[in-house]
Amino acid sequence: MSSASSPRLIDGKAIAAAVTEDVARRTAALTVKPGLAVVLVGEDPASGVYVSMKSKKAESLGFHSVQHTLPAGTGAADLLAVVAALNADPAIHGILVQLPLPKHLDAAAVIAAIDPDKDVDGLSVINAGRLTVGDRSAIVPCTPLGCMTLIGEVHGADLSGLHAVVIGRSRLVGLPMALLLQQANATVTIAHSRTPDLPGLARGADILVAAAGRAEMVRGDWIKPGATVIDVGTSRVPDATRTSGQRLVGDVAFDEAGAAGAITPVPGGVGPMTIAMLMKNTLEAAEKAAR
Ligand code: L37
After folding, report:
1. Cα–Cα distance between 64 and 30 in angstroms, integer?
2. 96-108 burial, b for 16+ CB within 10 Å, e for fewer?
3. DSSP of 65-95, one letter per residue?
4. Rounded distance, CA 232 to CA 238, Å?
5. 15-26, pLDDT tens digit by residue?
């Protein structure tokens, strides 16, 4: 086989637009407005950008959208009071506390304080447990949910016979990703920083999900010819040729990935899907509350 053909680009932006169109249609059919509260603590610049993208998308869909931006020095009691007020607010169906939190705050304690029915990030022990046992009422974390939709575009819903390798084991992405792939009948390996011969392992993957958060760590020779590559990374690296002085890259060295059968670009791949799935999770929480 010639390697001259380039991989199919999986257009996350277009697929996300289709998801949000469906969300808009279902929102119009509801008597209540889906309500999303996004909580940001501190000044992490990337988080600031993502949070405002989420609030704006929610507004554009006709949601009730509120954003709480708290100073970096906010204490646990004050943050928990904000969460408690949102839990009690019937106009709010989804609560997202953007991670990472400043070091002095215990993220697990904050997540545990969110009403599981409003936990649209799917990070609570309740929702993680529901996903683990295959309970369909689980709220599933947005990024892995978006990745599954992208994989479905290439392979359909049944991944029988395919070997999936997930690089990364976080509660936000790697772990739920592996569960979803396995529930779709893939054979799944979770790799991480302590995995020996990661390149060799990755080369066995029909579906490779890179979610390590390390810029361009997956090189061209890690990719099995024809594999589907899902790039979850978003890192900013210095680039003197840009006016901004930096450029966004994924966990995959995209220019080396010519052997892939299909690949998500960064930007325009997984990122927009993360936001679309947050809207979908919030809509579905509102639909449930309206029943
Ligand atoms: N749900 N998402 C949730 N909870 C969190 O706690 N940290 C976090 C989280 N992360 C997150 O929102 N990530 C994210 C990353 C990228 C995008 C959106 C969300 C995105 O849309 N990126 C664009 C590029 C935007 C840019 O220029 O920075 C993209 O096309 O990839």
Report:
1. 13
2. bbbbebbeebeee
3. EEEEEE-TT--HHHHHHHHHHHHH-TT--EE
4. 19
5. 999 999 999 999
Q: Distance between CA 76 and CA 110 in Å, rounded?
A: 8
Mean of pLDDT values over 95-124: 97
Q: Which two tokens stand for residue 273?
A: 């899907």
**Whether the domain at 31-117 and the domain at 141-271 fall into the same CATH topology:** yes
Averaged pLDDT, 37-52: 94
Whether residue 90 contacts residue 64, with contact meaning beta carbons closer than 8 Å, is answered with no
Ligand 1 pocket by C-beta < 6 Å: which residues?
49-50, 53, 96, 98-99, 121, 142, 234, 248, 266-268, 271-272, 274-275, 278
Residue 5 Cα distances to 150, 155, 226, 230, angstroms: 21, 19, 11, 19
Residue 291: band (very low, low, confident or very high) from pLDDT cuts 50, 70, 90: confident
CATH assignment of 31-117? 3.40.50.10860
Domain limits, the chain:
31-117, 141-271
CA angle 120, 124, 173 (to 5 degrees): 75
**Across 173-192, average pLDDT:** 98
Q: Which two tokens stand for residue 119?
A: 């936990």
Mean pLDDT over all residues of the chain? 97
| Whether pTM exceeds 0.85 | yes
* CA-closest candidate to residue 87, choices 136, 124, 54: 124
Would the pLDDT of 270 be above 50? yes
Q: Please, what sign has the CA dihedral across residues 123, 124, 125, 131?
A: negative
Beta-carbon count within 10 A of 87 CB: 15
C-alpha distances in Å from residue 201, one per residue of 21, 167, 195: 38, 10, 9
Q: Which fold has domain 141-271?
A: Rossmann fold (3.40.50)
State the distance from the centre of ligand 1 to the C-alpha of 291, rounded, in angstroms. 31
From the list 57, 67, 98, 251, the catalytic residue is: 98
